[in-house]
Design a protein that fits this description.
Blueprint: E1 25-37, E2 41-48, E3 51-58, H1 64-71, E4 78-87, E5 101-112, H2 129-134, H3 136-139, H4 143-165, E6 169-170, E7 188-190, E8 198-200, H5 206-214, E9 219-227, E10 239-248, H6 252-271, E11 281-283, H7 284-291, E12 305-306, H8 308-311, H9 317-324, E13 328-334, H10 342-354, E14 361-365, E15 371-373, H11 381-390, E16 398-404, H12 406-423, E17 434-438, E18 443-446, E19 451-454, E20 481-486, E21 489-496, H13 501-510, H14 515-528, E22 536-542, H15 543-550, H16 581-586, H17 594-600
Parallel strand pairs: 6-9, 11-17
Antiparallel strand pairs: 1-2, 1-4, 2-3, 4-5, 7-8, 9-10, 10-22, 12-13, 13-16, 14-15, 14-16, 17-20, 18-19, 20-21, 21-22
Helix pairs in contact: 4-6, 4-15, 10-12
C-alpha cells in the first residue's frame, strides 16, 4: 500500500551527503537499488540521480516496525527515509561517494511499489539495446545514462552562457517551413487548411538564420532540433540537435576564433581538459592527401604516401591501369604488422572492397628482413627496395597499397587506416585531438545527376581568388568553408555565405538551376538580398555527437533521452504508427492501395 509524502520535505539528494553531515537529521527520497536482509539487520541502497547511499536498520537502535517494513522492500520501490547520518559501522566502501557514511532511519515510507523490472538497473548494462529502448524510462534510471544526460545539460547551459556573453541573441526559427531541395530528404507535414499542400520540417535553420542577418541581428544562436529523412546508418538519428550560430561583418578567422574559445570553455569546465589554442588547421586537400579523409583522426600517424612516381614503370597491370586513367597509387605503413597472418590480410582486402577497391596490394616485411608480396613477380629487387624506402618500411612492417581514381584510393585507405588503428588499439578515448579542415571544394561532381552539386549548400561563398575558374574549371574552385573535427568525427561545420547577388546567381547557374527555379525555391531569400545584406558567416555543431565524444560513448543514442533505432522507429512509443481514417480524410489524404480495394467491393 503506497504512502503519502505529506509532511515530509526532501533535504538532500542521496549522494549530496558526506562525512560533513554526520549527526544531522536528513530526509532523502529515491529508488531502492538493492535490499539485503541479514536477520535483524537490513541494508537498503537508495538511489537517485546524484548517486547511492546506504540505509541501515539494526535491532536495538531501529524501531521494530521500521525493520519489518525495510525487510519487505524490493528493487525499484520508491521510498522516503528520515534519519540520522552516521559514520559507517562496517568497512568503508571505496567505490561509493557516500561510502564512509550511512543513514539510520527514524521513519520509512513506501511511496510507490514496483514490479520486477525486465532487466537490472545497473551501469554498463549487458541487456540487449532493443529491450532497453523498449523500456527506455527504466533504462534512463541507469547511473551512466543519467551522467551522460547531466553532462549534455551542462554543455547546453555553458554554451548559452558563453554565447550570451559574446553578444549572441537566442532566437527561435520555425519548424513548419517550405520544402527546398539540396541536402537530404525532407520530412513532410500535410496541411489540413491547404489541402494537397505540405510543410517540411527543417534540415537546419540555414535560410532563416541568413534572413536574421539581413534583419540586423548580427549575432544569432539557438540549440535546435533538425530533421532529415535519410536512410539511417547505425549512428544516425532522424531528429538531431544543433548548436547553430550566424555572425555578421565577419570572415573565416572571426568565426573560428569565437568557436575555439567556446570549445576551450566547454572542455575545461566539463572535463577539466585544456584545449590548446589556436587549434591546428589543415586544408581539405592536405587532409585528403595525408589521411584520405576530410575528417581525419590525428591521434595516430599511419599517413598515406603517394607512390605513383615510384611504381609507374612496374609491370603490375593494376598499378598501370590506374595511372593510365589519371588515378594514383598510394599506400599506408602498418608499423609492426609484418607478421600478420594471411587470413587476416584477406579480411583487410575484403574490407577495402566494401569501400570500392578492386583489391589491395601488400608487402609484408618479416622481422628478419625477408619480404612477402602479393605482386612480387611484377617488380625487380631494385624497384621493391625503392618502394619500401618510399613507404618508410622497416623490418616487421606491413605495407598496403590501393590503386584507382583518387576518390576511391582516399576512401579505401582512409577507412583502412582507421580499421588498422582499431585493431592495433591506437585509439585512446581519453585523448582529444581537434582540427579545423578549411578550403573545401565548392562543388563536387555527381555521377548520378551528371552535374556539379554544392558540397555544403548553394549559399557557400567561393574563395575570391578562385572565382576566375567557375566557368572553365568548376571543380577547382575552393569554398570559404570550414569543419571542426575531433578524433575523426566532424562535430561542426560552416562557411562564409554569399552576400553578393551576382555571385549567388552564378552559383545557381553552375548548379543547374534556371533563374525561374532559383526564384521558386529560394525567392524569399533572394528577395531579402535586394535590400542591403551584410557579409555574414556561420557554423553549426552536432550537439549529440559532441556530447558523445565528451562522455566517451560509442553511440549518440547513449546521450539522447529518447532515441530512435536504425529504422527510425521508437520502440517505446511504437512510433511511427497508423492513424485514424478520419484524420486522413481531414487532410484530404488517401493511402496508396485503398482506392483499388474500394472498386472491388
Amino acid at each position: 500500500m503506497a504512502e503519502s509524502m505529506m509532511g515530509l520535505k526532501r533535504t538532500h539528494r542521496c549522494a549530496e551527503l558526506s562525512e560533513a553531515n554526520i549527526g544531522e537529521r536528513v530526509t532523502i527520497m529515491g529508488w531502492v537499488q538493492k535490499n539485503r536482509n541479514k536477520g535483524g539487520l537490513v541494508f537498503a541502497d537508495v538511489r537517485d540521480r546524484s548517486g547511492i547511499i546506504q540505509v541501515v536498520c539494526e535491532e536495538g537502535s531501529t524501531a521494530p516496525e521500521i525493520i519489518e517494513k525495510a525487510a519487505k522492500l524490493r528493487s525499484e520501490f520508491v521510498i522516503a527515509v528520515v534519519g540520522k547520518v552516521e559514520a559507517r559501522s562496517g568497512a568503508v566502501n571505496e567505490n561509493l561517494a557516500t561510502g564512509a557514511i550511512e543513514i539510520k532511519p527514524e521513519e520509512l515510507r513506501v511511496l510507490s511499489e514496483s514490479e520486477t523490472p525486465p532487466f537490472p538497473i545497473e551501469e554498463n548494462s549487458k541487456t540487449k539495446e532493443d529491450l532497453r529502448l523498449k523500456y527506455r524510462f527504466l533504462d534512463l534510471r541507469r547511473p551512466d545514462i543519467q551522467r551522460n544526460l547531466m553532462m549534455r545539460s551542462r554543455v547546453a547551459t555553458l554554451t548559452r552562457q558563453f554565447l550570451a556573453e559574446e553578444g549572441f541573441l537566442e532566437i527561435e526559427t520555425p519548424f513548419l517551413i517550405k520544402s527546398t531541395p539540396e541536402g537530404a530528404r525532407d520530412y513532410l507535414v500535410p496541411s489540413r487548411v491547404h489541402p494537397g499542400n505540405f510543410y517540411a520540417l527543417p534540415q537546419s535553420p540555414q535560410i532563416f538564420k541568413q534572413l536574421l542577418m539581413c534583419s540586423g541581428y548580427d549575432r544569432y544562436f539557438q540549440i535546435v532540433k533538425c530533421f532529415r529523412d535519410e536512410d539511417l546508418r547505425a549512428d544516425r538519428q532522424p531528429e538531431f540537435t544543433q548548436i547553430d550560430m550566424e555572425l555578421s561583418f565577419v570572415d573565416v578567422d572571426d568565426v573560428i576564433d569565437v568557436n575555439e574559445r567556446l570549445l576551450a570553455k566547454l572542455f575545461k569546465e566539463v572535463l577539466d581538459i585544456d584545449v590548446e589554442l589556436p587549434i591546428q588547421r589543415m586544408t581539405w586537400q592536405e587532409a585528403m592527401d595525408r589521411f584520405g579523409s576530410d575528417k581525419p583522426d590525428i591521434r595516430f600517424g599511419m599517413e598515406l604516401q603517394n607512390v605513383t612516381e615510384v611504381v609507374k614503370d612496374f609491370d603490375f597491370v593494376v598499378f598501370k591501369n590506374a595511372i593510365e586513367k589519371g588515378g594514383t597509387v598510394r599506400g599506408i605503413n602498418a608499423k609492426g604488422q609484418g607478421a600478420m597472418p594471411r587470413k587476416k590480410i584477406d579480411k583487410l582486402v575484403d574490407f577495402a572492397k566494401d569501400y570500392g577497391a578492386k583489391g589491395l596490394a601488400y608487402i609484408a616485411i618479416q622481422e628478419d628482413g625477408t619480404v612477402k608480396s602479393s605482386f612480387a613477380k611484377f617488380m625487380n629487387e631494385e624497384q621493391q627496395k625503392a618502394l619500401i624506402e618510399a613507404m618508410g618500411g622497416e623490418n616487421g612492417d606491413l605495407l598496403l597499397f590501393a590503386a584507382d581514381k583518387n576518390k576511391v584510393v582516399w576512401d579505401v585507405l582512409g577507412a583502412l587506416r582507421l580499421e588498422l588503428a582499431r585493431q592495433m588499439e591506437l585509439l585512446d578515448k581519453n585523448e582529444y585531438k581537434f582540427l579545423w579542415v578549411t578550403e573545401f571544394p565548392l562543388l563536387e561532381w555527381s555521377e548520378e545527376q551528371n552535374r556539379f552539386t554544392a558540397m555544403h549548400h548553394p549559399f557557400t561563398m567561393p574563395m575570391e581568388e578562385d572565382l576566375q575558374y567557375i566557368d572553365s574549371d568548376p571543380g577547382r574552385v575552393r569554398a570559404k568553408a570550414y569543419d571542426i573535427v575531433l578524433n575523426g568525427n566532424e562535430i561542426g561545420g560552416g562557411s562564409v555565405r554569399i552576400f553578393n547577388q551576382e555571385i549567388q546567381s552564378k552559383m545557381f547557374e553552375v548548379l543547374g538551376f534556371t533563374p525561374e527555379q532559383a526564384e521558386e525555391q529560394f525567392g524569399f531569400l533572394l528577395n531579402a538580398f535586394k535590400y542591403g545584406v551584410p557579409p555574414h558567416a556561420g557554423l553549426a555543431y552536432g550537439l549529440d555527437r559532441l556530447v558523445m565524444l565528451m562522455a566517451k560513448q560509442d553511440s549518440i543514442r547513449d546521450v539522447i533521452a529518447f532515441p530512435k533505432v536504425k529504422d527510425a522507429s521508437d520502440l517505446m512509443t511504437e512510433a511511427p504508427a497508423a492513424v485514424d481514417k478520419k484524420q486522413l480524410e481531414e487532410l484530404g489524404l488517401e493511402l496508396a492501395g485503398t482506392k483499388e480495394e474500394k472498386t472491388e467491393e
